[in-house]
Amino acid sequence: MKIAVAKEIEICERRVALIPETVAKLVKQGLEVFVEAGAGEKAFFSDADYETAGAKIISDSAQLWSEADILLKVSPPQTREDGRAEIELLKPESVLISFLNPLGNPVIAQQLANRQITALSMELIPRSTRAQSMDALSSQASLAGYKAVLIAAAALPKYFPMLTTAAGTIAPAKVFIMGAGVAGLQAIATARRLGAVVEAFDIRPAVKEEVQSLGAKFVEVKLEEETVAAGGYAKEISEDSKKRTQELVASHVKNADIVITTAQVPGRQAPRLVTEEMVAQMKPGSVIVDLAAEQGGNCGCTEAGKDIIWNGVTIIGPINLPSSMPVHASQLYAKNVTSLMQLLIKDKALEINFGDDIVDAACVTHGGEIRNQRVKEALQAVAV
Ligand code: NAD
C-alpha cells in the first residue's frame, strides 16, 4: 500500500503532512511511503532526510497523486498551476487525509464524492479522549495561541513584565484574552510567561478553573441560556446575550494594552466581540491580534492577512499562524495523521471501519456519498 505526502501548493502553507521521523516509523511497520520532491523544504526537512528515513522521492506530482492509496496533505486540495484540480488527480477509491474545511467549503465534499474518494477531514476528528493524539485542531490552535502573543509583544511599544530599574518602575502589560479554548489557554500561558497581567473571557463557564490555574483572572458573564453545544464547543448565543457580553467586556478591552481574540463557533462566522466603538476607547499604541480573522474576525476593524492602525491601535489579522512555525506544526500534525492512519490500516492493507467512532466522524465522503449531515446541509445552503 502506497502512502503519499504531497507538496503543498497553497501560497502561505509551509507545513508538510509527514516529517522524516514519522516516515521512519511507518516504513518500520512495512508501509511504503512516497514523498513529493521538495514537500518538506519550507519546513526545513530535505528530500535527503526523507530518503534516509526510507521514503521514495517522487518528482512527478501527477504520478504521486494518481498512484497513492492514502494521500496526506495539510491544506485542502486546490487547482494546480497547470489548471488541473488536485482532486481530479486522485485514484478513485483512494483515501485523502487533510484539513478540508468541509463546513466552510462544502463544494469540496461534493467533488470528492464525485471522484469516489474516501476523504477524512482533520477538522471533523471528535474532541474525545481517545482521539486526542489525532486532534490537529488542538495541536495547531496551540501553536497559533503562542505565536499570537509573540506577535502582539513585538508590536506593543512597551515592555511585557514589571521591571524595577534605577530609572524607575515599569508597570506590567495588561493582556485580555477573549475565547479560552485551546488557542486562548496557550495565549494565556505565554503572556504569563512573559510577565503580563492577564484577564480572560469565554462564554463557556467550564473554562474558569483552567484560566485561573494558569494565573489569569476570569472575567465572568452570567448568561441565561445554554452556551455549550455537543462536543463541548460553544453555541451561537442570542442577540440579547451578545449585547450583555459586549457591555461586560467593553471596560476590559478599554484598559488592556493587548487584546487577543480567539473566539469561534464551528461552522459559523466568528462572533463579533470587539466593536469599533470599543477600539475607539483603547489607548493609542494598544494592540489587537484577531485569531478569528479568517472566519470574519472577532473585531469589527480586522482585515484578514493585514496589520492596520486604526485610531492609534494596531489591529493584526493573521492568516494561518501555525504555518509560521512549520517545524513544530508539521511535527505535531504528522503525529496526528499517523495516529489516525493506524485506525485505517490492518495487516498493511486499508480497512475502513465505520464502527470506529473516530473514523465514522472524520470520514466526510465514501463510496460516492457525502456522509456528514452538517456538510450536506451546508452544501444545500450554498446551492440555494
Ligand atoms: P474553538 O476554536 O471552537 O473556540 C475558541 C473559544 O472561543 C472556545 O473556548 C469558545 O467557547 C469561545 N467562544 C465562542 N463564542 C464565544 C463568544 N461569543 N464569546 C467568548 N468566547 C466565545 O474552541 P476549541 O479551542 O477548538 O475548543 C472547543 C472545545 O473542545 C472546548 O470545550 C475544549 O475544551 C474542547 N476540546 C476537547 C478536547 C478533548 O477532549 N480531546 C481537545 C480539544 C478541545
UniProtKB/TrEMBL annotation:
It holds the Pfam family AlaDh_PNT_N. Residues 153-317 form the Alanine dehydrogenase/pyridine nucleotide transhydrogenase NAD(H)-binding domain. InterPro entries: Ala_DH/PNT_CS2 (IPR008143), AlaDH/PNT_N (IPR007886), AlaDH/PNT_NAD(H)-bd (IPR007698), NAD(P)-bd_dom_sf (IPR036291). The keyword Nucleotide-binding applies. Residues 4-144 form the Alanine dehydrogenase/pyridine nucleotide transhydrogenase N-terminal domain. It comes from the Bacteria. SMART domains: AlaDh_PNT_C, AlaDh_PNT_N. The keyword Repeat does not apply. It catalyses: NAD(+) + NADPH + H(+)(in) = NADH + NADP(+) + H(+)(out). SUPFAM superfamilies: Formate/glycerate dehydrogenase catalytic domain-like, NAD(P)-binding Rossmann-fold domains. Keywords: NAD, NADP, Nucleotide-binding, Oxidoreductase, Translocase. It is an enzyme of class 7 (translocase). GO terms for molecular function: oxidoreductase activity. Its EC number is 7.1.1.1. The transhydrogenation between NADH and NADP is coupled to respiration and ATP hydrolysis and functions as a proton pump across the membrane. Belongs to the AlaDH/PNT family. This is proton-translocating NAD(P)(+) transhydrogenase. It comes from Dolichospermum circinale CS-537/01.
